[in-house]
Amino acid sequence: MVSNPTLERAVARARLRLVPFLLLMYVLAFLDRANIGFAKDAFQASAGISAAAYALGAGLFFLTYAAFEVPSNLIMHRVGAKIWMCRIMVTWGLVSAAMMFTQGEMSFYALRLLLGAAEAGFFPGVILYVTYWFPQEKRGQILGLFYFGAPISFILGSPLSGLLLEFHGAWGLEGWQWMFLIEGLLASIVGIWAFWYLDDKPADAKWLPADERKALVAAIATEEKAKESHGHAGLKAAFANPRILHFVVIYFLIQMSVYGVVFYLPTQVAALLGKKVGLEVGLVTAIPWICAMAATYFIPRLADQTGKHRSLAALTLAVSGAGIAVSAGTPPAVALVALCFAAAGFIAVQPMFWTFPTRYLGGVAAAAGIALVNAMGALGGFFAPNVKNWADATFGAPAGLYVLAATTFIGVLAILALGAARQPVAGATPVTARGDR
Q1: What are phi and psi of 277, to 5 degrees?
Q2: Who contacts 159 (Cβ-Cβ below 8 Å, separation ≥6)?
Q3: Of 149, 283, 294, 386, which is most buried with the most CB atoms under 10 A?
Q4: CA distances from 405 to 40, 165, 272, 382 (A)
Q5: Measuring CA to CA, which residue among 87, 270, 303 is closest to residue 195?
Q6: From first to last of its 437 residues, what are the pLDDT tens digits of the chain?
Q7: Residues sharing a CB contact under 8 Å with residue 262, sequence separation 6 or more, in sequence order
């Protein structure tokens, strides 16, 4: 753990300044990619979109998102976070707002593809940005705080989206049009703010006292040199080792769990309550995300304290898989509790997962490798709604949820298998941490 008092103060000051803003950015990112779940019924009816077309369009986002992840992160590594994060947020916000003009399946597909291209690089860009600012020993906690964005986007965004859907008819617009317009423009406004608020690296931070800035710069530089001493930390290190493919498989399976639930959670809760999607359903839908936020605070912190990131990640994901399975075909009260465990598990596991690749890759390899893992893994978001729709259509509901639960348990096995290959990859540091990291 970090023991230098000056460095401790620098990390605390950076955490206080940067994490809340990064969290705000992630809240808007997650909301703008997943709010389609709230509009599902009204959107399909108004735009004439079938269930199969909805599943395809929801997933198409992840194709262009994956295609542009690596080049986007390499550009950010070159030009800096403040310029590139501003570009990403402004363009995705405008495209998300343009979803209000959807008039059929083809326009729906086109806008979802554009949204994926616009947002590509945001998430791996933040993960990379965290490696510029925080020592390895603190990243599990920092990423755990960052991952509050997903549950917060639903705790606050669920009622907001439900409320906006009730604006139906105001100024001649339907409720789902208001939802896309307002939530999209919010992202663009925050993107402009990011340009003025973010500093690319600690050396640029005038808000850090000189001694703290020097200590933080030195700590990050020491970690980077350690990574480079065990490899060139170039692009080849991001693509040349099977360990990176292993990370991809794990993240793919986690994202299958996330988006198999996220895109259908509002309508699933509405069915449990026997209500239409609106403010009341939005408030109830927020409950699983409150549980997810609590889990995301405590579990990564415990992993950092004990060094048992691998075993805790596997256990957390297993709880999620059990929750997904139990939520299918059970009484409403039981199903809602199960969804709380599902959401808590697949959100809390992710900050622990990202400590695996970030401790192996440095330099440009980190920029490319993190983006590659996120890009290929995020394709789980494309497959999840389509696999769920296929299983439900073929075998009858809730077969889709059982399939998603099964893929989640495969992810548990993949995490446990990390212990069988503990040698560092090219451009990596050797495994010296406590516990089962």
Answers
A1: -70, 120
A2: 279, 282, 283, 286
A3: 149
A4: 23, 31, 19, 16
A5: 87
A6: 446 899 999 999 999 999 999 999 988 887 777 677 767 777 777 777 888 888 888 788 888 988 898 899 889 988 999 999 999 999 999 999 998 888 888 988 999 999 999 999 898 899 889 989 998 888 878 888 888 887 887 777 767 777 887 787 778 788 788 988 998 999 999 999 999 999 999 999 999 999 999 999 999 998 877 766 654 455 555 566 678 889 999 999 999 988 788 777 777 888 888 887 677 877 888 888 899 989 988 998 898 888 889 999 999 999 999 999 998 878 888 988 999 999 999 999 999 998 888 777 666 777 778 888 888 887 888 888 889 889 988 998 889 999 999 999 999 999 999 875 444 444 444 433 345 65
A7: 34, 37
pTM: 0.75
Q: Which residues of 246-285 are buried (b: 16+ CB within 10 A; e: fewer)?
A: bbbbbbbbbbbbbbbbbbbbbbbbbebeeeebbbebbebb
Q: Following DSSP, what letter does each residue of 111-174 receive, concatenated?
A: HHHHHHHHHTTHHHHHHHHHHHHS-HHHHHHHHHHHTTHHHHHHHTHHHHHHHHHTTTTGGG--
Nearest to 366 by CA among 265, 247, 211, 255: 247
Which residue bears the tokens 């001649």? 172
Question: What is each CA distance from 199 to 26, 88, 368, in whole angstroms?
Answer: 17, 16, 21
> What b/e string do you get for 29-66 counting C-beta neighbours within 10 Å, with b at 16 or more?
bbbbbbbbbbbbbbbbebbebeeebbbbbbbbbbbbbb
Q: Is the dihedral of CA 389, 390, 395, 401 positive or negative?
A: negative
- Please tell me the distance from the alpha carbon of residue 109 to that of residue 57, in angstroms, as a whole number: 5
The CA–CA distances, whole Å, from 137 to 177, 300, 304, 436 equal 44, 12, 7, 14
Structure tokens at 240: 């040349």
Say if residues 277 and 117 touch (Cβ distance below 8 Å): no
Say if CB 345 and CB 327 are below 8 A apart. no
- Phi, psi (degrees; rounded to nearest 5) at 427: 75, 25
Distance of alpha carbon 89 from alpha carbon 97, whole angstroms: 12
